[in-house]
């Protein structure tokens, strides 16, 4: 179960092991996982980072991860990331969508499309 300190924030993955642990958490909790593939030298990435952090605060039912493509080249290659920023949307370990570029509206729309808060099912 996610600790409260991890809810509502973007979790940076700096090692492949950390990435695997967080991805597995997303599978177990059945949460939508939004991965920001970024790079320190990328201007649009720096522009979108505080916006993503703000979105994360408002959507604790969605898991947000950040991967630096220079730090975790293998992970970026695995997910076929060719431009920064690329946001990959993952559900139960599988990619369901992606947004390429610092597109705040596209990002919000795609999160809402796939990451609606869990509906309460009444019998």
Automatic annotation (TrEMBL):
PROSITE patterns: THIOREDOXIN_1 (PS00194), THIOREDOXIN_2 (PS51352)
Localization (cell): Cytoplasm
Sorted UniProt keywords: Cytoplasm, Disulfide bond, Electron transport, Redox-active center, Transport
GO molecular function: oxidoreductase activity, acting on a sulfur group of donors, disulfide as acceptor; protein-disulfide reductase activity
Organism superkingdom: Eukaryota
Keyword Disulfide bond carried by entry: yes
Domain Thioredoxin, first and last residues per copy: 1-116
Gene Ontology CC annotation, any one: cytoplasm
Keyword Glycosyltransferase (UniProt): no
Pfam families, alphabetized: Thioredoxin (PF00085)
Known role: Participates in various redox reactions through the reversible oxidation of the active center dithiol to a disulfide. The H form is known to activate a number of cytosolic enzymes.
Family designation: Belongs to the thioredoxin family. Plant H-type subfamily.
Protein name, per record: Thioredoxin domain-containing protein
Taxon lineage: Eukaryota, Viridiplantae, Streptophyta, Embryophyta, Tracheophyta
